[in-house]
Design brief:
It is a single chain. This protein is an alpha/beta fold. It folds into two domains: about 1-200 and about 240-285, Ribonucleoside hydrolase-like (Inosine-uridine Nucleoside N-ribohydrolase, Chain A, Alpha-Beta Complex), CATH 3.90.245; about 200-240, no CATH class. About 35% of the residues lie in helices and about 20% in strands. It contains ten helices and twelve strands. The chain has helices at about 1-10, 30-35, 60-80, 105-115, 135-140, 175-180, 200-210, 215-230, 245-250, 290-305, and strands at about 15-20, 45-50, 90, 125-130, 150-155, 185-190, 200, 240, 255-265, 265, 275, 280-290. Strands 3-2-1-4-5-6-12-9 form an eight-stranded mixed β-sheet, with helices on both faces. A two-stranded antiparallel ribbon has the order 7-8. α4 (about 105-115) packs across α5, α5 packs across α6 and α8 (about 215-230) packs across α10. The longest helix is centred in the N-terminal third of the chain and has 18 residues, at about 60-80. The N and C termini lie far apart (about 45 Å). The model has no long low-confidence stretch (mean pLDDT about 95).
Length: about 300
């Protein structure tokens, strides 16, 4: 118990992290990748692991989603002067099967990095901002990593809400159950009624991000294209949640959010969460302050553009 609570304490020093992301799914993963890489004073981003996302016409299979995300990550890294080779690892091409977790480059890389981490020392943080299949598979394959990692999971909803669908959780219930039931130290970032406060608008992005080098222009154009693809929205007033920056933001400055130590909820097969005081503890974010997070991100993009 004491060791678990120590792992759940907000970090005070620079941390090691791998980011598990569905990089081509929407427009927010790109911001999270960039934010993590532009924050070396707090985050040593060791690797990017690619998670599958729900299929659609431009990616009709889960394998296609991994391919699309690799190309997206490679494009972003190129704009930041980095290489994807040996840094970006392909993950699962199917959602978790508890009887046969998929062995992938991402799971192998996570297991190797975790097992090389001293269980008595600082943990390896695993930022899971897409389907959590890769993390669940790694835990199934090598349960010892639980003693060496802390998972920061973006998904689900606040525990007081009635059951509702959530993009990262809904197609991957078995994986979320596996991680929640494993006892791995977790920081939960609920999407609905917490992380959905991280909104921005086209005018704000044009003012603070456009013109900040190739990467800044790309991030803005990507959001604009997303807005245009959603008929009925007013591009000048419509706001967009940049969900995934919550994970690096918590590592950069935990004081930008309010969180509690609570019992891990029980997740049923229908996606409903229920309280269970017999279960282990996790840390759950209750609220988040969007202004200092976006200010920090915008300032780092500006500084990177000026130094390039």
């Amino acid at each position: 118990m004491e060791r678990l609570l120590q792992r759940l304490a907000p970090p005070t020093d620079r941390v090691r992290m791998v980011l598990d992301t569905d990089a081509a799914c929407e427009v927010d993963d790109q911001f999270a990748i960039v934010y993590s890489l532009l924050s070396p004073e707090r985050i040593d981003l060791e690797a990017i692991h690619l998670a599958p996302y729900q299929v659609r016409p431009d990616s009709p299979t889960l394998a296609d989603t991994i391919d699309n995300s690799y190309r997206e990550a490679d494009l972003l890294l190129g704009m930041l002067g980095r290489s994807a080779e040996g840094f970006v690892h392909r993950g699962a091409t199917e959602y978790l099967s508890a009887t046969a977790p998929q062995h992938t480059d991402a799971t192998r890389d996570l297991i190797n990095r975790a097992m090389a981490t001293d269980p008595e020392g600082p943990p390896l943080y695993v930022g899971a901002i897409g389907a959590i299949t890769n993390v669940a598979a790694a835990i199934c394959i090598q349960p010892e990593i639980i003693e060496r990692i802390v998972v920061i999971w973006l998904g689900g909803y606040s525990y007081h809400l009635p059951r509702r669908g959530e993009y990262n959780m809904s197609p991957d219930i078995a994986a979320v159950q596996t991680v929640l039931n494993s006892g791995v130290p977790m920081v939960h970032c609920p999407c609905f009624h917490v992380i959905d406060h991280l909104t921005t608008t086209i005018p704000e992005l044009e003012h603070y991000v456009a013109g900040r080098g190739e990467i800044g222009d790309y991030l803005v154009s990507n959001v604009k294209a997303y807005v245009k693809s959603h008929a009925g929205y007013n591009a000048f007033a419509w706001s967009k949640v940049i969900w995934d920056i919550a994970v690096p933001a918590w590592l950069i400055n935990p004081e930008w959010s309010v969180s509690d130590i609570v019992h891990s909820p029980h997740l049923a097969d229908d996606g409903s969460l229920s309280a269970d005081p017999s279960r282990h503890f996790l840390r759950c974010l209750r609220s988040i302050d969007r202004d200092p997070i976006f200010r920090d991100l915008f300032q780092k993009l500006d500084a990177f553009a000026k130094s390039s």
